[in-house]
Amino acid sequence: MQGKVIIFSAPSGAGKTTVVKHLLETFPNLEFSISACSRQPRPNEKNGKDYYFISSEEFKNRISNHDFVEWEEVYTNCYYGTLHSELERIWKNNHMVVFDVDVKGGMNLKKIFGKNALSVFISPPDLEVLEQRLRDRSTESEESLKKRVEKAIWEMQFTTYFDKLVVNNELNKTLQETEQIVKDWLSKP
User: Fold this and answer.
1) Tell me: the pLDDT tens digits for 85-98?
2) 44: domain range?
């Protein structure tokens, strides 16, 4: 392993993907680590851009082959993980890796990279706001929405395991705050 990494984690719907996209546009030396997952793509997602979409069977084979830096079964038979080859691709470009991962994945990555990692937890102001954001996406069934809110309650317990906590109450302030956090991290030797 080489180089610094920045890890963004949050409950689904907290705004981490919006934050990460903004930072990637702001800092040209950052590059998004595309995770692999075994779920179906959402209508606006593209293979090789948002995720590497692979079947559960292929995911399990790649686990057996030790192709992942880290992986997690996030929901039953729904896997997410970071491929070694993805990090190598980014580091070959002399870029810094940026992760947009679930909370458990973020904690695992922090353990792996230690002081070479900055971990940032993006929190919703409260669970009601989070649930409304998920509803506004119009991508979730009621059952899926309920699972995501229950998982968010569990994930919120782990904020202290991250280097920084940012409450995403007002997007512009959140973007400014995360920009400063990244600027400070990049300036460290």
Assistant:
1) 999 999 999 999 99
2) 5-187
